[in-house]
Write a structure and sequence with these properties.
It is a single chain. The protein is α/β, with parallel strands linked by helices and 309 residues long. It has one domain: Metal-dependent hydrolases (TIM Barrel, Alpha-Beta Barrel). 37% of the residues lie in helices and 12% in strands. It contains eleven helices and ten strands. The chain has helices at 35-45, 61-66, 78-87, 106-115, 125-128, 135-146, 166-179, 208-216, 240-253, 273-281, 289-304; strands spanning 3-7, 12-13, 49-53, 74-75, 92-97, 120-123, 150-153, 185-187, 220-223, 258-259. Strands 1-3-5-6-7-8-9-10 form an eight-stranded parallel β-sheet, with helices on both faces. Helix 1 packs parallel to helix 10 and helix 7 (166-179) packs parallel to helix 8. The longest helix has 16 residues, at 289-304.
C-alpha cells in the first residue's frame, strides 16, 4: 500500500484574474485541483490513500501576507474538501486545520470535526503566531491524545523574532511529547520553517537537533515533501537533491520514522504525481525493498492505525 501523507484540494490559488503577473504555468492560478483530479492522479501513480488536509485563506493568511497576497487569493476550505472526502471515503483520510484559539472555540470545533470523521488536525504555530507549546495548543494536543486522533504539525514560514526559530520549535516539540507521550505527531516538511533557516535543511548540521528529537519519541513521524522548503532540482527528474535530503533523513531519523508525501498540488509545477512515486520506487537506491515499503506506506499505516474515523 502507498499512502501520501500530505495533499490538499484547491479551487484557485492566486487567481489569474486578480494576479495577472502570475504565470499560467502555475496551473492552480486558473485550473481547479479538486478531489476528482487527485484521485485520477493517485490511480495513474498507484497510490492507494492520502492524508487530505483542508484549509482556507484565513488558515494560511500568514503565508499569503508573505507573498503580498490577501484573503481573496486562496479559494478552498473545509466544506470544499469534505465534499471529496464524502465522495471517496476509501481514498481520503481527512485532517482539518486549527483555527486561532483567540477567535474560535477550537476544542468544540475539533470535537465536531472528529464526529464528522477527521483523523486529526493540522497546526501551523507560526501562522498562529504562537509557540508550539502554548497552553491553548497544549489543550488541543491533549484532546487529540484522549480522542485517539493525530496531530500534523508544520513549522513553515518562521520569521524570528516574530516567531520562534526552527530550532526553538524543535525544542518546544520535545517538551510537548515529554509531557504528552501518547500523542502521535506527524511533522511536515521534515520540520522546515523559512528556507533561509539553516535548521530547515536536512543537509545542514543545524538540522541534526531534529534527528535527535525524532529518535527520542516513538510517536513522532517525519513527512517528507518539499524538504527544507527548498526546491533546487527544478524539473530535473529523478530530483537528485531531493533524494540526497531524503537519504540524510533516513540516516538521521531512521527508516521507521519517515513517511512519503507530495504536498500536491503545490509542487506540481516541477514534479508530476507519477514522478513523485517513481523517484522513490526506481531511484531511491539507499532504500532496500523493506525500507521502501515502510517509507511509502507502512509507517503511515502504523501512524493512523486504530483511529476511529
Amino acid at each position: 500500500m502507498i499512502i501520501d501523507t500530505e495533499t490538499h484540494v484547491v479551487y484557485r490559488v492566486f487567481p489569474q484574474t486578480i494576479n495577472p503577473t502570475h504565470s499560467r504555468a502555475w496551473r492552480f492560478t486558473w485550473h481547479e485541483f479538486d478531489g476528482h483530479l487527485l484521485v485520477a492522479e493517485m490511480d495513474r501513480a498507484g497510490v492507494d490513500k492520502t492524508f487530505l488536509i483542508s484549509y482556507d485563506a484565513e488558515d494560511i493568511y500568514w503565508y499569503l501576507q508573505t507573498e503580498g497576497a490577501t484573503m481573496e487569493d486562496c479559494i478552498a476550505g473545509e466544506r470544499y474538501t469534505r465534499s471529496f472526502v464524502d465522495a471517496y471515503p476509501d481514498r481520503f483520510l481527512w485532517f482539518s486545520t486549527l483555527k486561532h484559539p483567540d477567535r474560535y472555540d477550537v476544542l468544540s470545533k475539533l470535537n465536531k470535526d472528529f464526529e464528522q470523521g477527521a483523523y486529526g488536525v493540522k497546526v501551523f504555530p507560526a501562522y498562529l503566531n504562537l509557540d508550539a507549546n502554548d497552553k491553548r495548543l497544549m489543550d488541543v494536543y491533549r484532546l487529540c491524545a484522549s480522542s485517539n486522533r493525530r496531530v500534523i504539525l508544520s513549522f513553515e514560514d518562521t520569521l524570528p523574532p516574530t516567531t520562534p526559530s526552527v530550532t526553538e520549535y524543535w525544542h518546544q516539540l520535545d517538551e510537548i511529547l515529554r509531557e504528552i507521550p501518547d500523542l502521535w505527531v506527524q511533522l511536515n516538511h521534515a520540520g522546515a520553517g523559512a528556507s533561509d533557516d539553516p535548521a530547515s535543511d536536512p543537509l545542514n548540521t543545524e538540522a541534526e537537533v531534529g534527528f535527535e528529537i525524532t529518535r527520542r519519541h516513538e510517536h513522532l513521524f517525519i513527512s517528507t515533501s518539499w524538504l527544507g522548503k527548498v526546491w533546487d532540482d527544478e524539473t530535473e527528474y529523478p530530483f537528485p537533491n531531493y533524494l540526497r535530503r531524503l537519504e540524510r533523513l533516513k540516516d538521521g531519523c531512521g527508516t521507521d520514522r519517515i513517511m512519503w508525501a507530495t504536498d500536491w498540488p503545490w509542487l506540481e509545477y516541477w514534479m508530476n504525481y507519477p514522478q513523485a512515486v517513481n523517484s522513490i520506487v526506481r531511484h531511491a537506491t539507499f532504500l532496500d525493498d523493506g525500507e521502501r515499503e515502510l517509507f511509502l506506506g507502512g509507517n503511515a499505516s502504523r501512524f493512523i492505525e486504530g483511529v476511529a474515523s
